[in-house]
């Protein structure tokens, strides 16, 4: 079993990604990321008692198309003026550190729903600058409609422009504050 230093870790946004994939017009996929993210990870002696909290600045969305990003920030989608952040707070960890299910409450667009993410440990190490780091990958899927994100448009072939299902792909790196790096 992998050993992770217990304590409170800070998310390293420069080495973390909160990405999503959604089917567009039924024929291709659009990928996007949120550039501004912060959070903490608390690793307990019993890994299943560990927890994570993450906050995402929804206005930091980037799909490589500024016009689309502006539309996603608007009231048709995220409505960032009224709902500027998306949060995830874990409520349960099932499994061992190597591979586990992370259950939590995702709040998006003013709606909170329970989601499950399948996660795995990338590892823990000390970088050349003396910083203790740990990394995880997590994947899951949500329904846009579950969060009140219902805007859509019909395509000529009878499909819709934006799929309901959204795949989440998260790569998270956390750093242990120097005062806590005693393991």
Automatic annotation (TrEMBL):
InterPro entries linked to this entry: Lipid/polyisoprenoid-bd_YceI, TTHA0802/YceI-like_sf
Top-level lineage group: Bacteria
Residue span, Lipid/polyisoprenoid-binding YceI-like domain: 8-175
PANTHER family in the cross-refs: PROTEIN YCEI
Family to which this protein belongs: Belongs to the UPF0312 family.
Protein name: Polyisoprenoid-binding protein YceI
Source species: Micrococcus endophyticus
